[in-house]
Amino acid sequence: MTTWNLKGTKHHVLICNGSSCMRKGGEEATQAIRNEIANLDLDTVIHTTRTRCNGRCKDAPVVIVYPEGTWYKEVTPEVGSKIVQQHLAGGRALEDYVIYEYDQDGFIAPEKTECTVGVSKPLKRSI
Ligand code: FES
Predict the structure, then answer these.
(1) Residue 85 within a domain
(2) Does residue 75 contact residue 63 with C-beta atoms inside 8 Å?
(3) Which of 35, 56, 115, 124 is the most exposed place for a label (fewest CB within 10 A)?
(4) Which domain holds residue 91?
(5) At residue 103, does pLDDT exceed 80?
(6) Is any atom of ligand 1 closer than 6 Å to the C-beta of 54?
(7) Contacts for 48 with CB less than 8 Å, ≥ 6 apart
């Protein structure tokens, strides 16, 4: 058990370790992301968390970057390393792998995104 002091953290990376993502290389993606963070000496500003299913299994392995709210699909070890280099260290998302981005109105799917739309949640009320 560890309790990290997260003051000064710039990014939180949620790495899906649910069963679908793990079947499609989630462990290797997890290790690649964490190794690249260490290689670039970014441990003090990037926090990673292994999660259970994030509800986008068709896109496995899934990785989510906050505070931007960028959801990535099909994260191989190579893509994971690029997420660290290009997005987390360089500030530019890997557009070819983005399935959702966050804007003022909530999550949006970029126009060129090719992925399963998925099941819509029933509308009860808007926030
Ligand atoms: S197991 Fe990763 S999104 Fe479902």
Answers:
(1) yes
(2) yes
(3) 124
(4) 11-108
(5) yes
(6) yes
(7) 12, 13, 14, 15, 30, 33, 34, 37
